[in-house]
């Protein structure tokens, strides 16, 4: 579950970048994704190398918040202090035509007067059901696209000098560390391709941390527990999809301005959802009903974390979506299959941990200093006496989470 923020941060960051001598985002035409481009984003095949100099890379600000969405399920009730809130339901399920317009860093207003969509940006999020990608949380797609864009821009500008940057704190202090690379190595491999691959890898690690942190008590809004959404069935795949989309947008030079990026994201989200076989709201609701009692429990209310019965925490890549035919209600699964033209075929999303002969973990890492609240909640530290971990420790931490999840929700709680 993600929390929003104001538009002020982005306005200040964009203004500062434009007035401080750095190459700020420019106003450029919208680029339309071709079928070949969409295939590349979904991992069907690669692109040729496109070179770029460090001085040409825009300074893109760190997104200032996370979008609010979504506990897994449909028509979800809410309780406060264990008391049900009467006549209040969260629908959650949506479709391609209702997603509104993408806005970097979310926020209600565009900071750019040239935005042809008007001052009020109607970004809508929710869960979309797709035949090939299962359920998708569009807030996660958008968040990780924005983060990938930011991280890729930062590392592209600083390969030769190295970098250290703080990300949004999430129950811990998070820092991206990139060691300096020899200029000749950057030239040999290509700045753009290295930056895209490394930006995607680091953004995915941040997404894994978010799921870990919410299980151990981190909440974007202190009064609203988010354990309910930790490793929700759709989260990791949704993250990976946003990361893949952002990589192709950067690769094609389609993120040179805020408006340019936002409008291209609208196109990309729509086209990739189409390619993954997105279906309408009613089919999405039917699919969600098919896994009621297996992946989620409609008798429970937000924020009861036992509402989510199954959690997808497999860290291997490619990232494989859960499909409802793994054990959903047979009659409803068959009706959904018919709506999908007779097939429910999972489409894995590749996310590389290296480029050419360079392993990203050999010169980059996500460093995490776990805070007091998570420590008090029983966070499983890999090393006694140290609260410092990196992405290399995730398998240890997630293994502990999986044991805890099975203890609470049963032996099948970590599989579809």
Task: Provide an overview of this structure.
The protein is an alpha+beta fold and 416 residues long. Helix content is 36%, strand content 11%. The strands form 4 sheets. Strands 5-6-9-10 form a 4-stranded antiparallel sheet. Strand 5 and strand 6 (172-178) form a beta hairpin. Helix 2 (35-41) packs across helix 6 (235-251), helix 5 (191-215) packs antiparallel against helix 6 (235-251) and helix 8 runs antiparallel to helix 9 (330-339). The relative contact order is 0.16.
Question: Top keywords for this entry?
Answer:
single chain, 416 residues, alpha+beta, 4-stranded antiparallel sheet, two-stranded antiparallel ribbon, 36% helix, globular, disordered N terminus
Strand order of the largest sheet: 5-6-9-10
Q: What percent of residues adopt helix (DSSP H or I)?
A: 25-40%
Helical/strand content category: alpha+beta
How much of the polypeptide forms β-strand, as a percent range?
A: 5-15%
How many strands appear in the DSSP assignment? Answer: 10
From the spread of the alpha carbons, the general shape counts as: globular
Distance between the termini: 21 Å
Round the mean pLDDT to the nearest integer and report it: 86
| Oligomeric state of the chains present here | single chain
Count helical runs.
Answer: 11
Please mark out the parts with pLDDT under 50 across 5 or more consecutive residues, or reply none: 1-23, 44-50, 107-119
What is the ordering of alpha helices and beta strands? HHEEEEHEEHHHHHHEEEHEH
Largest sheet: 4 strands, antiparallel
Taking all Cα atoms into account, the compactness measure Rg is 21 Å
């Amino acid at each position: 579950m993600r929390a929003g923020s104001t538009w002020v941060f982005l306005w200040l960051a964009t203004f500062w970048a434009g007035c401080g001598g750095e190459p700020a985002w420019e106003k450029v035409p919208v680029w339309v994704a071709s079928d070949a481009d969409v295939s590349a984003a979904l991992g069907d095949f690669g692109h040729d190398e496109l070179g770029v100099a460090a001085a040409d890379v825009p300074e893109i600000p760190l997104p200032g918040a996370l979008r609010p969405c979504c506990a897994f399920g449909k028509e979800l009730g809410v309780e406060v202090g264990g008391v049900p809130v009467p006549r209040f339901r969260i629908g959650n399920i949506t479709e391609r035509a209702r997603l509104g317009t993408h806005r970097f860093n979310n926020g209600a207003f565009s900071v750019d007067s040239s935005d042809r969509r008007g001052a009020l940006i109607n970004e809508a999020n929710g869960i979309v059901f797709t035949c090939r990608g299962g359920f998708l949380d569009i807030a996660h797609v958008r968040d990780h696209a924005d983060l990938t864009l930011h991280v890729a821009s930062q590392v592209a500008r600083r390969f030769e000098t190295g970098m250290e940057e703080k990300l949004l704190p999430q129950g811990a202090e998070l820092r991206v560390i990139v060691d300096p690379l020899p200029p000749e190595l950057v030239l040999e491999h290509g700045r753009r391709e290295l930056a895209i691959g490394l930006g995607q890898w680091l953004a995915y690690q941040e997404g894994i941390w978010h799921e870990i942190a919410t299980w151990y008590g981190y909440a974007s809004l202190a009064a609203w527990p988010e354990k309910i959404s930790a490793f929700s069935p759709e989260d990791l795949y949704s993250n990976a999809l946003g990361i893949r989309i952002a990589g192709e947008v950067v690769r094609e030079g389609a993120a040179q301005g805020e408006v340019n990026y936002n409008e291209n994201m609208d196109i990309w989200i729509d086209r990739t959802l189409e390619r993954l076989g997105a279906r309408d709201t009613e089919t999405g609701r039917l699919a969600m009903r098919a896994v009621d009692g297996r992946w989620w429990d409609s008798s429970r209310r937000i924020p009861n974390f036992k509402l989510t019965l199954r959690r997808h925490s497999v860290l291997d890549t490619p990232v494989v979506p859960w499909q409802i035919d793994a054990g959903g209600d047979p009659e409803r699964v068959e009706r959904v299959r018919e709506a999908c033209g007779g097939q429910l075929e999972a489409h894995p999303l590749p996310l590389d941990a290296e480029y050419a002969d360079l392993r990203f973990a050999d010169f980059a890492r996500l460093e995490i200093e776990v805070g007091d609240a998570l420590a008090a909640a029983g966070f499983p530290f890999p090393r006694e006496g140290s609260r410092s971990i990196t992405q290399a420790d995730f398998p240890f931490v997630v293994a502990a989470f999986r044991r805890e999840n099975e203890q609470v929700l049963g032996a099948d709680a970590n599989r579809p």
